[in-house]
Amino acid sequence: MYQIIDGRKISQEIKDELKQQVAELKAQGKSICLAVIQVGSDPASSVYVGNKKKACAYIGIESLSYELPEETTQQELLDLVRKLNADDKVNGILVQLPLPGQIDEEKVIQTIAPEKDVDGFHEKNVGALCVGSRGYVSCTPLGIIELLRRSGIEIAGKHCVVLGRSNIVGKPMSLLLLRENGTVTICHSRTQNLKELTRQADILVVAVGKPGFVDDSYIKEGAVVIDVGIHRDENNRLCGDVDFEKAAPHTSAITPVPGGVGPMTIAMLTNNCVSSVQ
After folding, report:
1. pTM for the complete prediction?
2. Integer Cα distance of 254 and 249 in angstroms
3. What integer is the mean pLDDT of 79-105?
4. Which residue among 117, 119, 202, 241 is the active-site one?
5. Domains of the chain, with CATH numbers?
6. 26 catalytic, yes or no?
7. What pLDDT digit, counting tens, does each position of 213-239 carry?
8. Which of 15, 38, 52, 116 is an active site residue?
9. Which of 97, 142, 163, 218 would give a disulfide with 214, using CB separation of 3.0 to 4.6 Å?
């Protein structure tokens, strides 16, 4: 019987630990403040931003909310980011993605001060991860490491296959697994003999952005499968990149969608905020 890795339960454990840490920091006269910027009113982005604010409130982190109109110019957004960079009261800056078409996302990300980049997207933080020095780590991959660790799943010495090479998940995920002494293979849209490689995985992380893409034919018997995807199916139900019904019986452990990786992303964002003052 396979183990369902419960991201809701584990994320709550992390938030409870952080709440205690924040209370201790406040007792020392230290406060934490996260600035959240949203441009436009994309419904999914609004839900994510709302969940981030709720998590901050629960833990005791102050959040500043900047809700800008869809027609905001790139210069206006950059000016706000620079203002927050210079504000000593603000520990972290989060710009909700995606941004409207008139704004260069990469330019905005690289304008955030690295020491306030709690999303872990700035090239200096990515570089720090590459060489093993201190910096913020992208929240979703960091959350996956915590899911594995707190579920008693050993990474060291295991063959870890990452399906996807995005800057936000695939690349940092592979570096984190390597840091944990896994042996890592990265697969992507140009990979040949894809199933041959994924069926070698002791730990398979799927972040391809295609609903139900991975079924049992991609999985080695007894593998651990982490599903990063989140979509709506034809019945408007949430689903992942993995066909759970077909895949799960062949795994030793698997994350569900919803309730797997998703809650961990916000938990690790708050973790990065707290670490900014420690």
Report:
1. 0.94
2. 9
3. 97
4. 119
5. 29-113 (3.40.50.10860), 139-262 (3.40.50.720)
6. no
7. 999 999 999 999 999 999 988 888 999
8. 52
9. 218
